[in-house]
# Entry
Amino acid sequence: MTAYTERHRAIRLGPRATAALALITLLGIGVFGWPLLADRGSVIGDHAVDAPWIFALLLPLLLAVVAATIADQGLDAKAIAMLGVLAAVGAALRPLGAGTAGLEPMFFLLILSARVLGPGFGFVLGATTIFASALLTGGVGPWMPFQMLAMGWVCLGAGLLPGADRLRGRRELWLLTSYGVVTSFGYGLVMNFQGWPIYTTGLPSGITFVAGDPIPDNLARFLAYCLATSMGWDLGRALTTALCTLLLGTPVLKALRRATRRAAFGTPVHFEQTGGLNSR
# Structure
């Protein structure tokens, strides 16, 4: 007879994957924040020009995270298959609320998945889901690389939340709900910022980006811009995420953890010989 033993664990970050994620994050901060450092009188161009270059940089870095995680022995064929399944489900959920008061049911699924499967897996899942949903809905545009980065950061943070090994039940559910609400607004802020320096023609001076102004002054006007233009949309996203997490979080977390336990990602299989029979 043969005995099969396995040990369940989440897909954890190794040093190579951490370095790749740090590089993507630095790139993202530069991509989003460079207008704040522009000289006075500078003209901030349309992202239709730079978006293909951003995507061209982002895609190999995402592949680098996957390759680094494989090299760190944290990601195997079973995890890649689950990544594809979850990205497909998230992409299918997005059209259910897209365009309607910020209702985005995919948010809660991606946050819960990253919570169970880890920050590296979560970042790649978030970015991949945005890419897949853009292809599905015809939403490919200069905003897509920015959405991929922003959603990747949301899922990265979910994977880094404390108590992944011990926190369960109501406390975990409220932690994830609170995180979902905060990041729903945070995602909106980040995505507003990628367009704010460009598309402010005709807006009141109190909410318009001014190249070369002190950073605190521009940030104050940006917050006023968000309050005036997108707060209702972000509130809809936050409420949807909170309700979905509270109502569906427990069964979804159990299903994800059961699938992760059975898959035993990154755990080698050991066969022991018993009863004098040889295993081949």
